[in-house]
Write a structure and sequence with these properties.
The protein has 243 residues and is α+β, with helices and mostly antiparallel strands. Helix content is 22%, strand content 23%. The strands form two sheets. The chain has a six-stranded antiparallel β-sheet with strand order 6-11-7-8-9-10. Strands 2-1-3-4-5 form a five-stranded mixed β-sheet, covered by helices on one side.
Amino acid sequence: MFRMGSLYRTENAMGPIERDIIRLASAVPDEETCGFVLNDGMVVATTNQAANPREEFEIGPVAFAHYEGRIGAIWHSHPGGEPIFSPADVRSCKALGIPWILYHVPTGIFRTADPTGNAPYVGRDWVYGLNDCFGLVTDWLRKEIGFDFPDVDRYDDKPEPSYQILENFPPLMRASGLVEVDGPPRYGDVLFMRINGPLPNHCAVMVNPQTNRILHHLKDRLSETDFYGSYWRKVTESIWRVA
């Protein structure tokens, strides 16, 4: 049975799913190739029906219908550009609710995006707008203490990240039922931080106050736990607690 967790690695391991995707993408190296990873781990290719297959991909409804009930993930390749999911990729991934796998042909890099909220907390790829610091914190709160945040489109209808959206996070905290508190953070508290910017631009969650461990996801790095030491205390702007 296919599990997305098998694709989250901290080392450069290569499994059968990655090898099959490389083989299929290498057959058409100048276009975006695409397909499914089925629940049994089989990788299948589908026809890219996009008008411009060199820069985008589209899987038709017939293919979805043919593999209905057996789709574990969607994969596609990038023949050039950057090894990152586009804003359109992120929105489509979230809308479908199916994990996505990206293979960047020039570098051989794989990226994973999981909108289900069930990806491992540690070792997630950075995917802005989905698997980022806010996504990690909200997934943790939902699974560990049963607290749901509304989703936020971090691109704000723009092709690039919009940092003005950060101004909306404090009102979102209050509207969602969190209260700003003073003092040392407790288990489950959300910490908003300002790292080299005019506004808070990073968040973490306190997962072990006894050992001062926070869970967070820095830009372009894998998600991780970290020691809440002097640096993180210095950049912490506010602490929020479920009321």
